[in-house]
């Protein structure tokens, strides 16, 4: 089991401003699954990803991710728990603008104590078809290329789990499709498990399981068939 989350709650704000965002979410995800999370805007998809990935502390429940219990950890401990276990890909690519593509991908490898971070980063960029772009800075790359660098960075340390939040949201349809194909291929090659947040029904069909959220809870959880996403 790569994710074992039980009765997860998230409330933000105090007093009258307190908002319950996740109202008891339970989710188990096995190794190699590709899970799409669909749901209307504001239903809690990004919040769920934030607590499962340890970017935000849940207010209640239990969360075990890639073998680590993450409830109740401090920010430093959460960062440590994420390192090497979890890769994150977001809609905005979040590359470091002052670093080349190669340096961006080398950062997590260096943090993980890899013996040859730059050699490995180069191989990783070659695997996403960017062997000819290693010395380019993010502003010198197209949106699709930047997202491929972000994919290479997320996968470089061979995490058990990749979270992707609207990874094609800033890309045109055909570029987005190419990035998703690449993501799926690299997942198959590395064996990583995927949790993908999307508004895109079409994209959800590329996954093995579709979870729908509404108003802070999971309302359906089904294996992908043509009917589920119709
Ligand atoms: N820091 C915060 N303080 C208070 N409310 C918040 C905070 N962050 C998110 N929310 C609220 O929590 C709810 C869930 O937000 P979340 O971003 O998880 O939804 P989402 O399903 O990912 O939406 P979208 O598809 O629009 O990204 C929303 O109503 C949002 O306004």
Structure, explained:
This protein has 230 residues and is an alpha/beta fold. It has one domain: 3-Layer(aba) Sandwich (Rossmann fold), CATH 3.40.50. It is 33% helix and 27% strand. It has eight helices and ten strands. The chain has helices at residues 45-52, 75-82, 101-111, 117-127, 143-155, 173-190, 201-204, 226-229, and strands at 3-12, 19-29, 34-38, 60-65, 68-69, 86-90, 161-165, 193-197, 209-214, 217-223. A six-stranded mixed beta sheet has the order 6-7-8-3-9-10, sandwiched between helices. The mean pLDDT is 92.
Note the main attributes of this structure.
MacB-like_ATP-bd, 4-stranded antiparallel β-sheet, alpha/beta, 230 residues, single chain, binds adenosine-5'-triphosphate, transport, Rossmann fold, 27% strand
CATH-scheme architecture: 3-Layer(aba) Sandwich
Q: For the largest sheet, list the strands in their spatial order.
A: 6-7-8-3-9-10
**How many domains comprise the coordinates?**
1
- Radius of gyration using CA atoms only: 17 Å
What's the CATH topology label? Rossmann fold
Mean pLDDT level: 92
How far apart the termini lie comes to 29 Å
For the record, the CATH class is Alpha Beta
Bound compounds, each kind once, are: adenosine-5'-triphosphate
- Name the beta content range: 25-35%
Structural class: alpha/beta
